[in-house]
Amino acid sequence: MLSPAPNPNSGIYKSAVLLATLGADLAASVLSHMDEREVELLVREMARLGRIPAAERDRVLEEFRHRLMQDSGAVGGVDMARQMLEQAMGAEKAREILGGLEPAQSAAPPLALLLEATTLDSLAALVADEHPQLVALLIGQLAVERAATVLAALPLEMRGEVAARLAEMEAPSSMAVEHLERYLLEKLNSRQSARREEVGGPKRVADILGRMRRSVETTVLEALEQQAPMIAQKVHQYRFSFEHVLKLEGRALQRVLRDVEADTLRLAMKGLDEEQQQIIYSNMSERAAERLREDLESTGPTRLRDVESAQQMMVEIARGLADSGEIQIALGGGGGEEEGEDDVFV
Fold this sequence. Notes:
This protein is mainly α. Helices cover 68% and strands 0% of the residues. It folds into three domains: 11-103; 112-195, Annexin V, domain 1 (Orthogonal Bundle), CATH 1.10.220.30; 240-323, Annexin V, domain 1 (Orthogonal Bundle). It has helices at residues 11-21, 24-31, 36-49, 54-70, 77-89, 91-98, 110-117, 120-127, 132-139, 144-153, 156-168, 174-195, 202-209, 214-227, 229-238, 242-246, 250-258, 262-269, 274-281, 286-297, 304-323.
């Protein structure tokens, strides 16, 4: 039986468009504050969206803007709206839509807003093939902690030259900063235009759910399987979960483990049975495996949410290595079977 076509005037449709337009991390954060029934409805609607024309997406965002104007008591206010719109559409378009809603007393320079709204990994990827002088200028505009993260994310062969140019750099002229701002806006907008129409569908849902706690993800997927089995099947095809990490072939799993911090791996192991733990041990050196066993035995009861967070970090590491072509991953069904609340201990 075919599902009815989405109703573009319904609240659930417009909410799904808004969430699906956001980055997967921000959408997952929003969904984490909703109850399971609301998450199930929104996920099902997002899975049905498919391609949305830019004009339709803009219509929904414009309505969101008007509702925000009418509700002066909305949590987060203009600042939250700006953050959401910047992540979805870029800083320039966000400023155009919000217009006079920008509070004059908290106005920030355009470049500062742009850098604040762009993830550090995205910044590093944007400038990885640019001249080291431009990269140094960019890093010089960031707070120390953010600058360190971007520098570390650059290709190895670039880091030394960028650091040297940054050390020699004097206070940049306003013209140089304006040039950097225009450059970043143009490059971000070109990337946004390449992905704007693909806001929904099973892959988008899988990406969003993959950034939520495993117990929440499992609950939503179980509800989808009962209410909309065809949609659930499509979502499963795009999922990459912690179980898939354990099924990686030896060299790929060893590559993932090299990037996992010891504390993260110890926490992730708390949620595994003996057979699953042995998969990890067998892909480590004897000395490292023995040290991990000792650390694990000395670790007391751990909150399930901390275990799930550690396992999710390993999933993100594997995804990153797959995106860079260092390992290959196979997608498909499967998923966690654990359920529990924040105060469950393992």
